[in-house]
Amino acid sequence: MMNMKYIFPAALLMVLGACAGFEPLYGENTSVRRGFDRLSLSPIEGRSGFLFAQALMDRGGVNTGTSGEYVLETTLRKNQTNVGVRVDDVSTRARLIMSATYSLRDRNGKIAYQGSSEGISAFDVPDEPYGALIAEQDAEESAALILAEKVLNDLAVFFASAPENK
Questions:
Q1: Of the CATH numbers 3.40.50.12780, 1.10.287.990, 3.30.160.150, 3.50.50.60, which one belongs to the domain with range 30-165?
Q2: Which of 117, 101, 115, 124 has its CA nearest to residue 158?
Q3: Separation of alpha carbons 36 and 155, rounded Å
Q4: pLDDT single digits (tens) 48-104
Q5: Helices marked H in 24-161 — which ranges?
């Protein structure tokens, strides 16, 4: 029977050996970071578009405008559904779904990648009109943030696997 004091170090060496060549997806000077640096975002209309663009800039360092090597064109849709209703037919809870259809175009206008995703947020609807408005705006901000994270993850996988980035 093998001595237990040798099993742990041997297993640790095997695990560490499997990590050779590991590169964090969003790390500095990675193919994903270089891809995001070459990416710009075409303008998106409305408050939802502003929130989504702001989240992309904050989270991924994406620039606005159309001067990048790649341009992200996005169409947003927002849908709100009442999911909690009182006996007197007044909504008490709502679900907000923000969906995006996007395409990544290269300098020649050719679509390099396209996809779609959605961010979902739910909120309580208070009786006061101002409170209901604030709750809806907070939910819209949360949904935009969730959606931006999903889009950035999709784009990160694209840039990490693109042949010119390897």
A1: 3.30.160.150
A2: 115
A3: 8
A4: 999 999 999 888 777 776 677 889 999 999 999 988 888 887 888 999 999 999 999
A5: 31-37, 46-60, 129-161
